């Protein structure tokens, strides 16, 4: 009798632990959420070189190795690209942003390579608070003399760069940067996946959109002669320097201290 009771008790404890341990349910399909576990798994399809990971699973915690968590300012939780509630952040285009403290992990010069993966959903195609007809929707470079990199999206009304999305690297003093871009018709409310890969050893910036390589350009040997250095600016999401604000949602940001391959980028895009 004692063995039967102990077996029943251990089985119940194992079942309960599975409910609270996402790793034990990792093979469950995403469209059939467990009744006791609705949060996203923090296991990325690509983990080598991962230095920061922001899944926005009800907060702005960093589930990467250094736990460089963000502080939320006026941004609100919203549904992600799979329709899961409170699994992404919504930015209002006026004063909402998330700030992440400066860390060497976010600088290209630390390992001479940096890859950033992010999902974004623009809810407007012409932004109310834009700078020179574009918004910096995520970047590191608000402190004078400490510019490093940024993601930028142009307004639809820009005649030659309508809804172009770019990634730029800068010299610390600022000025014009070297970068790559993708320019296609964009629909408001559409989720888009971007990965930028900066590699100083090959003098290249490469931009992927929805798993496909779209552009690759030189860094130092460009007309701007960019030499990335480690600055002191924080990383901001939803804005870079308070001069422009993104209106839409952002989710699943991952930062790697190496250059990702095209196959790895595609794996991130196809992640469920």
Annotate the secondary structure layout:
Elements: H1 2-20, E1 50-54, E2 71-73, E3 76-78, E4 88-92, E5 97-100, H2 108-111, E6 113-122, E7 134-140, E8 149-154, E9 165-169, E10 178-182, E11 192-199, E12 204-209, E13 212-218, E14 235-237, E15 247-256, H3 262-269
Antiparallel strand pairs: 1-15, 2-5, 3-4, 4-15, 5-14, 6-11, 6-15, 7-8, 7-14, 8-9, 9-10, 11-12, 12-13
Quick synopsis:
The chain is mainly beta.
Could you explain how this protein is built, in words?
A hairpin with an 8-residue loop joins strand 9 (165-169) and strand 10. The strands form two sheets. Strands 1, 3, 4, 6, 11, 12, 13 and 15 form an eight-stranded antiparallel β-sheet that branches. A seven-stranded antiparallel β-sheet has the order 2-5-14-7-8-9-10, with no helix packed on it. The chain has helices at 2-20, 108-111, 262-269; strands at residues 50-54, 71-73, 76-78, 88-92, 97-100, 113-122, 134-140, 149-154, 165-169, 178-182, 192-199, 204-209, 212-218, 235-237, 247-256. Helix content is 11%, strand content 32%. It has a single domain, classed as Jelly Rolls (Sandwich). The protein has 272 residues and is mainly β. The protein starts with a helix and ends with a helix.
**Which stretches are low in confidence, meaning pLDDT under 50 for 5 or more residues running?**
1-38
Main sheet record: 8 strands, antiparallel
Number of individual domains: 1
CATH topology: Jelly Rolls
N-end to C-end Cα span: 45 Å
Helix content class = 10-25%
CATH class: Mainly Beta
**Which structural class should the secondary elements be placed in?**
mainly beta
